[in-house]
Write a structure and sequence with these properties.
The complex is a heterodimer. Chain A is mainly beta. Chain A is 0% helix and 50% strand. Chain B is mostly beta strands. Helices cover 0% and strands 50% of the residues of chain B. The N and C termini of chain B lie far apart (36 Å). Chain B is built from no helices and eleven strands. The chains are: A mainly beta, B mainly beta. Chains A and B meet through β5 and β10 of A and β4, β5 and β10 of B.
């Protein structure tokens, strides 16, 4: 079955970087995109960006421009999300999700289990 | 950016009730509207895509409708497992989620 498995929880200090992985299985990785969505404690969903495993094209939400990088490794069917210059308000659960489209972000299904990133001094 | 306004933000309903959640876009998004269900501590799950298409395996009591700026998610007969938070998401431009509607037990 289609499955996305994310790396484990992280605790980081303000100003540090975090890199979360998302390993896909059960489908042809390069035929879909991957979107990343985060959820702060008790809050709603926030789309961060998208990458197509087809050719590595990316689209990032404006608020993360300059400190967010998404990559893929097609040899291992794994997507990565790196967020730099972390602040306390980056504390959230970060989700990866398979995106139906390889050309532009669309709808997301299924989702990974989520990775809690805690930013604290 | 296109903003998405969901209403209500929360509602209380009983098992068997018909529940309607609305989502309004700040500008026309044709049918680029998707709905997700999220239970506490779990990842969201896709219910409806392209405004009215049901994801495989989703119970038939869930349906979506609308186009342009106004959209609706309807649960025809609420079941105990449907108590959750529901989000709309537009994919016409930079993806944006609504703020969610929490469906609670009455």
């Amino acid at each position: 079955q289609v499955q996305l498995v994310q790396s484990g929880a992280e605790v980081k200090k303000p100003g540090a970087s975090v890199k979360v992985s998302c390993k896909a299985s059960g489908y042809t990785f390069s035929n879909y995109g991957i979107s990343w969505v985060r959820q702060a404690p008790g809050q709603g969903l926030e789309w961060m960006g998208w990458i197509t495993a087809y050719n590595g094209n990316t689209e990032y939400a404006q608020k993360f421009q300059g400190r967010l990088t998404m990559t893929t490794d097609t040899s291992t069917s794994t997507a990565y999300m790196e967020l730099r210059s972390l602040r306390s308000d980056d504390t959230a659960v970060y989700y990866c999700a398979r995106d139906i489209s390889v050309t532009t972000p669309n709808w997301f299904d299924p989702w990974g289990q989520g990775t809690l990133v805690t930013v604290s001094s | 950016d296109i903003q998405m306004t969901q209403s209500p933000s929360s509602l209380s309903a009983s098992v068997g009730d018909r529940v309607t959640i609305t989502c309004r876009a700040s500008q026309g998004i044709r049918s680029y509207l998707n709905w997700y269900q999220q239970k506490p501590g779990k990842a969201p799950k896709l219910l409806i895509y392209a405004a009215s298409s049901s994801e495989s395996g989703v119970p038939s009591r869930f349906s979506g409708s609308g186009s342009g700026t106004d959209f609706t998610l309807t649960i025809s007969s609420l079941q105990p497992e449907d108590f959750a938070t529901y989000y709309c998401q537009q994919s016409y431009s930079t993806p944006m989620f609504g703020h969610g509607t929490k469906v609670e037990i009455k």
